[in-house]
Amino acid sequence: MRSLESWLIQEMKDGLVVAASGGPDSQLLLYLLSDLCRQMGLPAPSVFHFNHGLRQQADEDADLVSRTARQLDLSFFQEAQDVAGFARRMKMNLEAAARFLRYRDLFRASKLSQSGGCCTGHHGVDFAETALQRWIRSSGRELKDILTASSEL
């Protein structure tokens, strides 16, 4: 546990961009990291929201993340893309296109904010689903090696 704590503190010292969807997992992550940074005298995280434009409540999610960032006095980056149109043009499935655009723009926000890293929130169902998908595709790799705590952008 001590090494995880040390790793997290170092990441926060270098600056973080928190990818926030507006869901409860990313909202909690914003509040926790913001509070922790203030308590420890570390740089406040920046907030990034990607509006996929795919769901009816997408604009409401964007508004919630924007209000939360303002309330916590955090820098805020937002991107909106036509994911469905991009997927058609690039002949990609919708999920892959959304992931590509989201991480491309998250990387851009990280560079603009001069942050050392990015942070995303996943609740248990997200984590289990991602781990299972990667394990099925991995051709025999150990499950512990499939989903790591961090990765390079």
Distance between the termini: 25 Å
Q: Which word captures the global form?
A: globular
Major β-sheet, in short? Answer: 4 strands, parallel
Amount of beta strand: 5-15%
Q: What low-confidence regions span 5 or more consecutive residues with pLDDT below 50?
A: none
Note the topology.
Blueprint: H1 2-14, E1 16-19, H2 24-40, E2 46-51, H3 58-71, E3 76-80, H4 83-90, H5 94-112, E4 117-120, H6 124-137
Parallel strand pairs: 1-2, 1-4, 2-3
Helix pairs in contact: 4-5
Describe what this molecule looks like in 3D.
The protein is α/β, with parallel strands linked by helices. 56% of the residues lie in helices and 12% in strands. The chain has six helices and four strands. The chain has a four-stranded parallel sheet, with helices on both faces. Helix 2 links the parallel strand 1 (16-19) and strand 2 (46-51). Helix 4 (83-90) packs across helix 5. The longest helix is centred in the C-terminal third of the chain and has 19 residues, at 94-112. It is globular. The two termini are 25 Å apart. The mean pLDDT is 83.
